[in-house]
Design brief:
Helix content is 35%, strand content 20%. It is of the alpha+beta class and 339 residues long. It has a single domain, classed as B-lactam Antibiotic, Isopenicillin N Synthase, Chain (Jelly Rolls, Sandwich), CATH 2.60.120. Strands 2-3-11-8-13-6-5-4 form an 8-stranded mixed beta sheet. α5 (56-72) crosses α10 and α6 (85-99) crosses α10. The chain is globular.
Length: 339
């Protein structure tokens, strides 16, 4: 008899056996990573009460702190962010129930607009593979009552509330970052809405097979900004001063990171930083991410007269990323669009 947990696990080793049996490749990666010392860090922690303060000086200081973290780290944490901690806890509870569904059902049931993803279909080597599963859901699809069966109707309702709260926070942060550069705070509101943004529910199963396996391979985000809620297991790492550092989880904070589009729009003032997830050998890890994206035909300009980048649309950017991943196994991203 197959246990519930076993039945729900994606068949990584069976499906990708050609990648995992390449022991010589694994040994090469192990030798390479033995020289990498990953230290734990605490991201800049910003209290967003300053943005709502009636004191102009406090608000100005808060905006400057957000902008500094976006330039120096590309990542920061926020407290008093306006997303209910009770709601986030309910989301985590429903998310766990969703991933405990048998694997075959997750693949075939078309839950949440057929948004289930697992592994990395394009991977040809271990360094291109991600040991994770996810539901990558367009916000516009969450409100559709037929996006979930009756068993997960409460999940859909909670996701709607989360999406609304995350959208408000994302637009607030994008607005103050634009304001810091002298532009109207509402300049992203028209192009980034429910029809263009996404919510992604992630699960990283325990991985004792190989310590070099990525939960999510190194990448930058192809959006304006991302808001992340992670559990206390840890595993998120980012590149800081040419070294990988591990992000220490904070149960009361949400993590925010700058995406490629904001780096291009700000003319490299704000930084889209490479990051990855390393799975735990014994514990499963859950996270949830909100992606602030424009429509595919939106032109990504810049905030200065002399731009480092060619003018491109989000659709052109996404197409180039997909072509690069298909040909090389890795995303190239912004360097493709430098003048």
């Amino acid at each position: 008899m197959v246990s519930g947990k076993t039945a729900s696990e994606p068949p990584f080793l069976e499906h990708y056996k050609s990648i995992f049996k390449a022991s010589s490749e694994i040994n090469q990666l192990r030798e390479k990573q033995q020289h990498q010392v990953v230290e734990e860090c605490e991201l800049p922690l910003i209290d967003l009460r300053g943005l709502r303060s009636g004191n102009k000086a406090e608000r100005t200081t808060c905006i400057a702190t957000i902008a500094k973290a976006s330039s120096e780290w590309g990542f920061f944490q926020v407290l008093n962010h306006g997303v209910s901690l009770e709601l986030l806890a309910e989301m985590r509870k429903e998310q766990k129930k969703l991933f405990e569904v048998p694997f075959e059902q997750k693949v075939s049931s078309k839950l949440l607009n057929d948004s289930y993803r697992w592994g990395t279909p394009s991977a040809t080597s271990l360094d291109q593979f991600s040991w994770s599963e996810a539901f990558h859901v367009p916000l516009a699809m969450i409100s559709k009552v037929d996006s979930c069966n009756r068993e997960f109707e409460h999940l859909r309702e909670v996701m709607e509330l989360i999406a609304d709260a995350m959208s408000e926070l994302a637009h607030t942060l994008a607005g103050v970052l634009a304001e810091n550069l002298g532009y109207p705070g509402h300049c992203f509101a028209k192009s980034c809405n429910k029809s263009t943004c996404f919510l992604r529910l992630n699960r990283y199963p325990p991985c004792s097979f190989s310590p070099e396996t990525f939960g999510l391979q190194p990448h930058t985000d192809s959006d304006f900004l991302t808001i992340l809620c992670q559990d206390q297991v840890g595993g998120l790492q980012l590149m800081k001063d040419s070294q990988w550092v591990a992000v220490k989880p904070n149960p009361n904070a949400l993590i925010v990171n700058i995406g490629d589009l904001f780096q291009a729009w700000s003319n490299d003032i704000y930084k889209s930083v490479e990051h990855k997830v390393m799975p735990n050998a014994k514990l499963e890890r859950y996270s949830m991410a909100y992606f602030l994206c424009p429509s595919y035909d939106s032109t990504i300009g810049n905030c200065t007269e002399v731009s480092l980048y060619k003018i491109f649309t989000f659709g052109e950017f996404r197409k180039q990323v997909q072509e690069d991943v298909k040909q090389t196994g890795k995303k190239v991203g912004l360097p493709r669009f430098l003048r």
